[in-house]
């Protein structure tokens, strides 16, 4: 069986002679397919050589300068390390790049700008793979985040809080609030390829709200309510927690305006012997384990049923949370997620 010739392994003069023979054969009446088979080259190469001959004549078939094109090449180890460092530590807009996300095209542009080395997106992709990177869906983070405050919380404030809670024999709770809507859809459903599944639900929109607090020991307190989350609702929830608590409560919450209100501050001061309210740094919900309980409710209480009324929705959420109260191991497992493992 005749094998194809790898022209890349031939010297320049032999390459040029082969191109000339193939072009003359086709001009003499041989088909391009026949020429490719006769001379053991690819049909694509024959087509390319014929095009060169038509556009540039015999000169276009002569051997050219071999090697990388001017401006092409590879990054050395130092350059590669710097580019990787920029990708890991910054986003494109922080480097004045006209991109929002790190794509292969963006990486190629960055390398071209920094070192004048031209790389195809494919080659940039190979570099990214070598650097241990993969394409991933990014997590949204607010510009208003104070990274220094978050680092201080993880390395100083929270460890200190744990020691203080231990000294006071207090229990650390993580709290959060969430709104639920009847038109929320979560999860995936199998369907024929190319046919998006349709979920039938009531056309009426209604909702409810919930507030909850969990501990890394698996305890869960919650309250499902209608209407807006305000001072009165939060105070009622705190009163319920205090009635059930046997130890002092350290409750960690976000910076919601209700948590910072004068009424709440006064209530906490009046119950200082049994209650302490601590606020997380701003714009870092991923550090609150209770956010994972919210997702659990959306996925497993709302995502697996279609309530037809507000009363049915509230009942479904309450039943799910009552079930979770009897499953402390599920609550404890929430603290194993990488962003909140520090609180386990």
Automatic annotation (TrEMBL):
Domain Winged helix-turn helix: 99-156
Superkingdom per UniProt: Bacteria
Region (Disordered) location: 57-76
Pfam families for this protein: DDE_3, HTH_29, HTH_33
Biased composition range(s): Basic residues: 62-71
InterPro entries assigned: Homeodomain-like_sf, RNaseH_sf, Tc1-like_DDE_dom, Transpos_IS630-like, Winged_HTH_dom
Sequence ranges assigned to domain Tc1-like transposase DDE in this UniProt record: 172-310
Entry GO MF terms: nucleic acid binding
Protein name: Transposase
Organism encoding this protein: Cupriavidus alkaliphilus
């Amino acid at each position: 069986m005749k094998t194809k010739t790898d022209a890349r392994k031939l010297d320049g003069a032999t390459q040029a002679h082969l191109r000339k023979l193939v072009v003359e054969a086709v001009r003499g009446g041989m088909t391009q397919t026949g020429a490719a088979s006769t001379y053991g080259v690819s049909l694509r190469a024959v087509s390319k050589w014929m095009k060169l001959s038509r556009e540039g004549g015999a000169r276009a078939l002569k051997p050219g300068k071999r090697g990388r094109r001017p401006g092409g090449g590879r990054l050395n180890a130092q350059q590669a390390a710097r580019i990787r460092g920029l990708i890991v530590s910054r986003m494109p807009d922080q480097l004045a790049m006209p991109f929002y996300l790190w794509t292969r095209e963006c990486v190629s542009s960055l390398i071209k700008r920094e070192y004048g080395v031209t790389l195809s997106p494919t080659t940039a992709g190979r570099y990214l793979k070598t650097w241990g990177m993969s394409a991933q869906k990014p997590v949204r983070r607010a510009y208003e985040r104070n990274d220094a405050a978050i680092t201080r919380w993880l390395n100083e404030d929270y460890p200190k809080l744990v020691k203080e809670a231990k000294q006071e024999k207090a229990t650390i709770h993580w709290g959060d609030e969430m709104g639920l809507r009847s038109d929320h859809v979560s999860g995936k459903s199998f369907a024929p390829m190319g046919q998006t599944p349709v979920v039938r639900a009531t056309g009426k929109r209604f909702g409810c709200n919930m507030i909850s607090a969990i501990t890394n020991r698996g305890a869960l307190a919650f309250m499902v309510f209608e209407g807006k989350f305000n001072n009165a609702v939060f105070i009622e929830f705190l009163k319920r927690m205090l009635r059930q608590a046997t130890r002092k409560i350290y409750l960690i919450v976000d910076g919601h305006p209700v948590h910072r209100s004068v009424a709440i501050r006064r209530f906490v001061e009046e119950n200082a012997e049994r209650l302490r309210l601590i606020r997380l740094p701003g714009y870092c919900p991923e550090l609150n384990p209770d956010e994972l309980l919210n997702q659990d409710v959306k996925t497993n209480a709302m995502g697996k049923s279609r309530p037809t009324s507000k009363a049915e929705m509230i009942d479904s959420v309450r039943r799910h949370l009552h079930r979770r109260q009897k499953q402390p191991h599920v609550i404890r497992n929430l603290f194993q997620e990488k962003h909140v493992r520090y609180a386990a």
